Amino acid sequence: MIQSPGDTFEREFRIVGSDGVTRWARLSGSRSNVSGQVTLSGAIKDVTEQHRLEEELRRAHRLESLGKLAGGIAHDFNNLLAAITGSLELVELHCAPAALDDVATIRHGAVRARDLTRQLLAFARQQPLEYKVVDLAELMRKVERLLKRLVGTTVEIAIAPAGSGLWVRADESLLEQVVVNLVINAREAMPNGGRVTLGVEPFQRTPAAALPAGELVTLFVSDTGVGMDAETRNRAFDPFFTTKTHGTGLGLASSYGIVRQHGGTILVESEHGSGSRFDVVLPRVEGHGAKGAEAEPARASAYAQRKVVLVVDDEDLVRRTAVRVLASLAYDVLSAGSAVEALALVAARAEPIDFLLCDIAMPDRDGPSLAVELATMRPGLKVIFVSGYAEVPIGAMAGARFLPKPYSRDQLAALLHDDAWA
Questions:
Q1: Which residues are CB-contacts of 268 (< 8 A; sequence separation ≥ 6)?
Q2: Which of 67, 182, 303, 344 is deepest in the core (most CB within 10 A)?
Q3: Considering only CA atoms, which of 310, 307, 279 is closest in space to residue 202?
């Protein structure tokens, strides 16, 4: 209420149009009294986009806080899984045939747990990325057969024609996970069957402040399902929010985290009863001359002589499992539970040490700084960092490799036998 002459005022209010679309308006103005005549003057401004951006910022803050929690849980869980999966592989080497089915069941459960932690890390935006230049049209063709098996016989998958040169710089496996998650979400929105359409095209809509700068490309997934009301649409990417009876609420949240980690965003268009469309918007790159770290190094079958590996990890279960796995691969193994112990061990040893297998996050000292000092003491030391998630940048040490926990015996063997170390 305006109290006295000369008052200024500002009010915001919501307008629901005849088309059912909600918009926000801001009324601002002033009242004046000239010779006893009171006049009002002001203006009305459409602030719908500002409200949308403010909500996007609030969502980002919520996701950041929950992401830190999810990343911490995933880190600890991956340490446990590293010990479980490593021990399982050692058991399989000596397991009686009658027990192999039981071991396979345990392994299957561990793999499902590993995939869940990857979803948590993707949501937390702490998943280490392996960037390469990806042709989105080719990506659609690669996953088409998988998607058709995934949705069943009642849902039709259609791939829209795509132009050439629609390239992005991305971790291809994580981008495939985003597509799968979006298609699963579409399938769940069509309990009686329907049609899912996927496509890739240049992003041509009016850019908003929340979108990445520069030339953009969109990978879209649309469906003919039940659609979403405004409340569901606004919470679509909230972690653990789901409208499904048995859903985890992580599919869309982890997809959003992956895309944000790639410098992009996901836009949603949906109305109740009218289906949904999700647009994965990413920065576009040139397809030629932009090679990343995608080239697979050549593998050597084995070493001609026995090598020595120093394992440094503060988690006792993980360290002991790594030692046993390396011993099963015919390596000589040294181990240390802390940076201080590792430095003392190397200083006291005259014989060569070929490899350092080092955890990134340790309570007394981080892995990269320890590795730099050990490499100074032992020139030519080959360094492999391991972690539940890459919370410390490893780029500070040139030539180091990274192996995410939980890793398999074969993955570790292949990295140690890599000809590229030479």
A1: 228, 233, 236, 276, 277, 278, 279
A2: 182
A3: 279
204-212: long-range contacts, CB 8 A cutoff, minimum separation 24: 208/49, 208/52, 208/53, 209/53, 210/52, 210/53, 210/56, 210/265, 211/265, 211/281, 212/263, 212/264, 212/265, 212/281, 212/282, 212/283
C-alpha pair distances (Å), 309 with each of 79, 111, 374, 379: 20, 27, 13, 15
10-residue stretch averages of pLDDT, the chain, 422 residues long: 62 82 86 80 86 74 65 74 83 79 75 67 58 87 80 87 83 83 88 90 71 85 88 75 57 82 88 88 73 37 66 90 90 93 93 92 86 92 82 62 84 81 62
Beta-strand pair 194-202/167-170: unpaired
Closest C-alpha among 185, 176, 101 to residue 151: 185
Closest by alpha carbon to 256, among 154, 205, 192, 182? Answer: 182
β-strands 308-312, 332-336 pairing:
parallel
Read off the amino acid at residue 224: T
